[in-house]
Amino acid sequence: MQVKEEDITIIGRVLCDPKRDLPSRFRALFTLRNIGGSKAISQINNCFNDSSALLKHECAFCLGQMQDQDAIPVLISTHATKSELPNYLSSNSLLEDENQEPIVRHEAGEALGAIGVHSEELLSLLQKYCNHPIREIADTCHLAVNRIQWLKTHGAKENLSNNPFNSIDPAPPCKEDNVSKLYSILTNADEDLFNRYRAMFSLRNMATDKSVKALAAALDVEGALIKHEIAYVLGQMQHQAAVESLTKHLQDSTEHAMVRHECAEALGSIATEACFELLRKYISDSEPLVRESCIVALDMCEYEQNHDFQYANTLTNLKESTV
Length: 323
Prior knowledge:
The protein is an all-alpha fold. It has helices at about 5-15, 20-35, 40-45, 55-65, 70-75, 100-115, 120-130, 135-155, 180-185, 195-205, 210-220, 225-235, 245-250, 255-270, 275-280, 290-305, 315-320. The protein has a domain at about 170-310: Alpha Horseshoe (Leucine-rich Repeat Variant), CATH 1.25.10.10. The longest helix has 19 residues, at about 135-155.
């Protein structure tokens, strides 16, 4: 997408402005993701000092989805000096920064896997964090290492189901196409996490009533990381059969905040009237990650129900405001 540099800067200001409402900042972020390129990466990078863990984690997610190698120095510390890096990037490390919230560091690790560059330096760093004491960071880095190695070894060689949602996933689908068998792999705590993720994405790609129900039932497994990813794919599928399970886990105050946050956003994508009402109840939740997710999810509900042409509409609004 060809966009003037000054327009990218203005969109970046919307993203980084703490006085703006969170939905406007999210829409600005996804506008930058859609624009792509080094200047958009620079604007996203400017947001990592924000107070909102939710927004920062979404920024890291978008960097991964862009699959632009220029984002790698934002996500990790490299051995390059600042003078060797593009001048719009810092050598700060999201993944390694202990001052960043775990959900942000997790998303940085996942983004590195999504970009998928195979280098010994990158793999060494990710493997180091596979042993991190915070399980969500460790498991994410395990997945990232496996995805990068899978891309190098197999890549396009495997004949796998198509992803109808065009997302860059932490793992590819697997060859199995039996729902019961896939559910068994997904819910087996003794199975390697990468294989469990592959089963999950196979179920998502099927997009049938049976596969949705299998995924919804799998939300009762142990482990915040895999549960939050199950909630994410249920949001992608936008099937009402998932509402009951997503509601149950959003309402559970003892549930991990990562899971509750992803359940809220999934309900925002499904966007039934019942989803609206539930999300309104939790916009004052004591957990900031949940509270902010419900605010963003309500905006998504309105977008889905109004059938707006585009969610990432900051550039369009900018042009209209200058007419």
